[in-house]
Design a protein that fits this description.
Distance between the termini: 120 Å
Structural class: mainly alpha
Number of strands: 0
Oligomer: single chain
Number of helices: 5
Mean pLDDT: 79
């Protein structure tokens, strides 16, 4: 992809510059959204339009055939935009270039050739758009769905853990109460038994000689 094409595409999405991911198309790889909310202002659309005009101008320059042809003809018509009459612009542009060897057959032939250049470039453009959609939209949607699913799983796991904590807390409180109760009962009974034995020992010494 040309540097200009990458700049156009980077207007809308962040381009991955890693070598293994660089597209090799010659198209303007702009991921200009179709039926999306990515472009929301007139100024953005105008900016993109200007970028594409520059891109196609450079594309035609790179493809320009030897000698005067449709490209020079169209440029000359643009240069005469101050002339209000369209027919005058066309006739004047053709007259000027015919002095350099341009004839009507070559003009029409090269116009068709530039149409073919656009068609070929459009295929590369669409391929790049599809790739950008796959990486920047479809891929991220899948990641978002996977993350949402993981959140649900974690939420379910957290609820299960909270339930387990509550059950353990009940067990701890119940066991703690039982242990303290048994401990107190044991101490009480142990003291009673010791006192009984001590009393018996006293009585033994008293009653038995």
């Amino acid at each position: 992809m040309s540097n200009l094409a990458k700049r156009i595409l980077s207007t809308f999405v962040e381009m991955d510059e890693s070598p293994e991911k660089k597209p090799e198309q010659s198209a303007a790889a702009a991921s200009l959204p179709r039926n999306t909310d990515a472009v929301t202002s007139t100024s953005t659309v105008v900016f993109a339009s200007d970028k594409f005009k520059v891109y196609f101008d450079n594309l035609f320059k790179d493809t320009n055939f030897p000698g005067p042809d449709y490209f020079e003809f169209s440029r000359m018509i643009e240069a005469m935009s101050a002339i209000p009459d369209e027919k005058t612009r066309f006739v004047s542009a053709y007259a000027g270039l015919s002095l350099q060897g341009l004839d009507k057959d070559k003009l029409l032939k090269t116009a068709n050739q530039y149409l073919q250049v656009i068609d070929s470039d459009a295929k590369n453009f669409q391929s790049t758009v599809d790739k950008a959609l796959q990486e920047k939209v479809v891929g991220k949607k899948k990641e978002m769905e996977a993350t949402a699913k993981r959140i649900q799983e974690l939420s379910r796991e957290i609820n299960e853990l909270n339930t387990k904590i509550e059950a353990l807390n009940n067990d701890v409180r119940e066991n703690e109460e039982k242990i303290h109760s048994n401990s107190n009962t044991y101490k009480q009974e142990s003291d009673n038994m010791k006192n009984k034995i001590l009393q018996d020992v006293q009585k033994i010494n008293q009653y038995i000689s």
